[in-house]
Each structure stands twice: as C-alpha cells, then as structure tokens.
From TrEMBL:
Organism of this sequence: Pseudomonas karstica
Entry superkingdom: Bacteria
Residue ranges that the Swiss-Prot or TrEMBL entry lists as coiled coil: none
Segments traversing the membrane: none
Lineage: Bacteria, Pseudomonadati, Pseudomonadota, Gammaproteobacteria, Pseudomonadales
Keywords: Sigma factor, Transcription, Transcription regulation
Residues of the RNA polymerase sigma-70 region domain: 14-80
Family assignment from sequence similarity: Belongs to the sigma-70 factor family. ECF subfamily.
InterPro entries: RNA_pol_sigma-70-like, RNA_pol_sigma-70_dom, RNA_pol_sigma70_r2, RNA_pol_sigma70_r4_t2, RNA_pol_sigma_r2, RNA_pol_sigma_r3/r4-like, WH-like_DNA-bd_sf
Residue ranges occupied by any RNA polymerase sigma factor 70 region 4 type domain in the UniProt entry: 112-163
Gene Ontology molecular function, alphabetical: DNA binding; sigma factor activity
Protein name: Sigma-70 family RNA polymerase sigma factor
GO biological process, one term: DNA-templated transcription initiation
Amino acid sequence: MNIVSTSPTLFSHLYGTHHSWLLRLLHRRLNNGWDAADLAHDTFIRVLKRPPQTADEVHERSYLATIARGLCIDHWRRRQLEQAWLQTLAARPEALQPSPEQRAIIVETLYEVDAMLARLPNKVREAFLLAQLHGMPYKQIAAQLEVCERMVKKYLAQALLHCAVLEAELDGLLVE
C-alpha cells in the first residue's frame, strides 16, 4: 500500500501525528535544535519517496526512527569529514585558503567520495586507496592484502566501475 499515492491526507496524518515525537528524538540524539529540525524534514522527505507499508502507530514510529537513525549517521560522518578538512585548511597560509564557495564544493565532494568508498567491499576499498592515495604498485598491494596480483587488478576494476557508475548517477545519466 502506497500511503502517499493512496491519499495525501494519510501522509498529513503521519506528519501531524509523529513530527513532534521525531523532532524530540532527533534533538536528544543531536543536541542541536536546528540540525534536529533539518533531519526531521529530511526524514519526511524520504517518507514521501518511500512510504511505510503499514499504518499502525508502532510501525510508523519504528519506520521513522530507522530513517532518522540513518540520517544521523550520515550527518555525523559528514561533520567528521568537514572537521578534518577544516583542520587541514587551518594549517595552510591565509593566502592559499579557498573561498567559502570552494570550501562548500570540496566538502560536498569529500562526502560523495566517502559515501562511494563506504559502499565498496573492504578489500576493494583497501586496494583502491592503496593504489590511488599511496601510489602502491599492484605487487605491493597484493602482498599487503595477501591476495594475488590478478585479484588486485580485479578489485581496482571493480572500484573504477563503481566510480564511473556513481559519476553517471550524479550527472543524472542513470536512473534507478
């Protein structure tokens, strides 16, 4: 049963019934009212895209809490990346500091790369990072990962394919 397409009043009821509860839940987790309001809004946007299949209050709250938990994790990861980037910037001379617009673009790009890497299997991610960040040759990567060189090539091909698919999705060329 698709609640949104079935009746907009059902979505309105879901929002009206659970918004305050969700906002309090998020405020306790994040300890910040503005972030809690943003994530509550994002949670209901996700509900619009994929409504719950059941209509009882317990399942609705569980569904909303699950979505909100994932958004909190994304929020915290994003903050960690942003803090790491700001610490790196603090070490640079003022003349070499990027503009606020460039900073926002860089943080968004870092977040997208982190999300892409998180979706890769562990060995594929490790091989990719060793090759791209550390410039290690296949032989050294194979030794470190305790696999043959052929597997390293396979891992890197898998990672590059994943990057290409992600880029196509971001460019709007692929539709889910």
